[in-house]
Amino acid sequence: MSRFARAIRVQNPWVDRLILGATIVLAILWVIPALWIVSLSFRPNFLLMRSTASILPIPFTTENYELILRLSRVPGWFINSAMTALLMTAMVLIVSSLAGYAFARIKFPGRRILFIFVLTGLMVPEQAVFIPLHTMFADLGLHNTYIALATPRVAVPIGVFLMTQFFRAVPREIEEAAELDNASRFTIFWKIMLPLAIPALTTLGLFTFLHAWNDFLWPLVSATDDDSYTVTVGLASIQSNYAQTEGLGMVMASAVLASLPVFILYLIFQRYIVSGVSMGSGR
């Protein structure tokens, strides 16, 4: 903490309370729309046609969820999203950790130029490469497969940057001690560096899974068969004009079902995320 920040704390003891109060207010403002969506999903549609102002689901009904789950393709869409997100997450973690370790620890010709080239990928909108990606996978006959849904997002520049910064912060003395024991480069990476990088890998993996699960545009382009839809594309395909007619509750229930797996994952891995963010901010 800087001297200026410490001086402010000493002169004004209410700073921490004001920050805490502002954080609570912002958290409430963020939670209210989510609670409102959940409430609407448990209300009958004939009441939603009259008003959507109430945040309490009175009267309570599970009809909207039952209607969605009765559709035979919905479980398949969830499986497609899960398989795509897991495959994409696994490949991103493998590529990002290997590339990050190479950029951080291995000296090779053109390393800095190549690292800058990788970071320039952050400036390229993903929509700009949809046409060549679609053409490439169409020529290979891979559309409507998990490979086509997952592989276009494997080379994630932000993932390589995150892992590079993490490995650079690991003291070199750890590697030097392993080298004295005749450990190979891969052994150092696999048995020493990766266990240390679990918080960073967990954070990157969760955000990758979140992006893959919520992705809509590329699955809409790549998956043309109903049975190959992900949950986002599939649920959107059955909504039609429900929001303007009698199915607003079903739309809200679709949103809740689509976001529920990610919410559960965040609760499970919350401590790893906090650890990874705190370690990153401490550098």
Automatic annotation (TrEMBL):
Part of the ABC transporter complex UgpBAEC involved in sn-glycerol-3-phosphate (G3P) import. Probably responsible for the translocation of the substrate across the membrane. The chain crosses the membrane at residues 20-42, 77-101, 113-133, 145-167, 188-213, 247-269. Its main location: membrane. This is sn-glycerol-3-phosphate transport system permease protein UgpE. The keyword Membrane applies. It is found in: Cell inner membrane; Cell membrane. Pfam families: BPD_transp_1. It is a multi-pass membrane protein. The keyword Iron-sulfur does not apply. InterPro entries: MetI-like, MetI-like_sf. Keywords: Cell inner membrane, Cell membrane, Membrane, Transmembrane, Transmembrane helix, Transport. Gene3D superfamilies: MetI-like. Belongs to the binding-protein-dependent transport system permease family. Residues 78-269 form the ABC transmembrane type-1 domain. It comes from Devosia albogilva. The complex is composed of two ATP-binding proteins (UgpC), two transmembrane proteins (UgpA and UgpE) and a solute-binding protein (UgpB).
